[in-house]
Amino acid sequence: MKDSEYNVVEVAVPVPVRSSFSYLSKNQILPGTRVKVSFGSRSLIGVVISSSTKPNFQKDLKSIDSVLDDKELLNKKDIELISWLSNYYKTPIGEVAKLFFPPSMRKEIEIPDEQEIFELTQKGEFYSEDLLKKSPKQLEMLSYFRKEKTATRHGLKSISYDSRILRELIKKELISKKKIKYKEEIQYETTENFLELNNEQKAAYESFKESLGSFNVHLLFGVTGSGKTETYMHIVRDVLENHKQVAVLVPEIGLTGSLEKSLKSRFGNKVVTMHSSLSNKDRQRSWKSIQSSSAKIILGTRSSIFTSTPDLGLIIVDEEHDSSYKQNEMPCYSARDTAIYKAKLHDCPIVLASATPSLESFNNAKLKKYALNKLEERVSEASKPKLELIDLRGKEIISGLATNTIAEIKKELTNGNQVMIFQNRRGYSPVVVCESCGWSPNCPNCDVRMVYHKQTNKYSCHHCGYAENYFQECKVCPNNELSFYGAGTEKLEESLRTIFPDFPILRIDSDISYKKDLNTLLAQPLKGDPMILVGTQILAKGHHLPDITLVVILDGDFSLYSLDFRATERMNQLITQVSGRSGRGNKSGKVLIQTFVPEHPSLEKVVDSSYETLAENLLQDRNQNKLPPFYHSINLITESTSYISCKEELNKIRSMFVNPHIDVIGPQPCIIEKRKNIFRWQISAKSKNRTLLHNSLNRVLENHKIIGNKVRLSIDVDPL
Ligand SMILES: [Zn+2]
Ligand SMILES: [Zn+2]
User: Do the domain assignments include residue 11?
Assistant: First the structure.
């Protein structure tokens, strides 16, 4: 065979090596096709990223083992996005490429588009019940089938379903199993109407409309309750009329519920969702319908940005400031920034929406890199809530609540209103300590204190999930009574039940709501009866609860003394978002912030200024202190069972940065130095010049070889 009869294809193989690998193929394979290749002794699935006929190929190249798809599944723009991500976030290209497929398709198996159906047989219909007398569970299931005739496995979960019982009935030929092609069984009725836009909303909408068909970043900066969602729903409708696709990103699964309902009731089956709590089958189904363009709107969390959208016409990033858009492990990508690059590749507009934009986006709008669309009017009658500081000094405090705070809560409840209390610590007692010797139950895997949870009666680590059964003796000295301090959400809930026995109390934090659907939980407050909601930051996000008139922030000081320079930005966002919970609907609201330092300038400003003024002030600080968005930074983190190895490796890397325009800080231990028995250290490289920073790091990485595999290096570009 002549050399020219071969193609050389570059394959992104999911291994921790930065480059792609060359293989030979007799046939031409288009980029975006999955192939099976041998890699060392393993057989792996990779994605073709380019192919060419090279007559002078190296003789020792291996051939592709097999081609898995009849045609390419990713388009050219996807391949470009993969290369950009790999370059920008310094992540092996094969590790990035696999994210563009749903989990089932990263392995060879592709879940068939079929559904199992169980059906009552004729024998089953007339089978004598006496014969099943000894197996009441089989009889119960048979009776179910006699009523329903058919069922899916999912449907059977409503009765006490047991796969063994089902198998028994199939063996007795009372029930048969068959497979049918999956059809969309739910038809959504398009019932929700579009509301008329007010002048501000109309202006924003017109501005989006003008940029359809070209790349443009819009910052939709709208106060809570100003109708941001309604505004972008209108532009989504226009994009769909042009037969294009829309990608909508949301920070958390809990938030997709109401938006999903709203999108589906307007656009019906054109909407699919994509997030990690869907089954693999559902993710594959969503992926395929978007990739083939049979579905037009994809609503999902951060990784949904990797779904191939051949006809993309618009991207919306809701709550663009939310830190959940940043992944904290390799690839440490920002879904918002990736979305902006994707919009550029597709030559379409992108809308970043928030009531509290990130300083990065706020600054870009100031510099006119982004179009700024402001919504300053609240759609409903209610005015901006009043903010008030509660001085905790010298006050009696019950489970974190000052007596005057309790009085305010009581007033609202008796007036028939709802109250939300925000506490950023979950569990019962955040601090458990021996008062004789100072010992605390620490997590053996991480260097943090464990939190006492009353519901499970355990001490548990919030970093690795490690838990120990309750004990009350000190493990170091003879003291047999540990002391409990602080009030987490659990304890707060308990005390509130004692103080307000006549009102329902609903606690919402990740201990409760991660398993349950947030929308189900929020059905109770939506009924409008007076009650108290206690929650962590989950509650601060975009929920419309019209009957809340008072919001209490228990610990207004938590960010003031933080090591994280973003803490003040986050506190401002949180307070603005939480205030947005109060006084929606037609009621006006009040926000109480409890503090021990009411004269602290950051808190005073929060009370007196708009979010915009706060952001302006913070930008000045950031500029003076050489911080983002004026300076760019990249963290290099080493992980190892030995902290000496962590440090040595980083010292080596540090010495390789030679440019005087790059500051390198560290090595120093990460904020939590030890997690799950692994030590973590980091250096941080900073520069005003982003390109220079990236180029230097690329050079460092090319020359840097980790000796042995004792140390793992990860890179966090634009860390949060
Ligand atoms: Zn002790
Ligand atoms: Zn731990």
Answer: yes
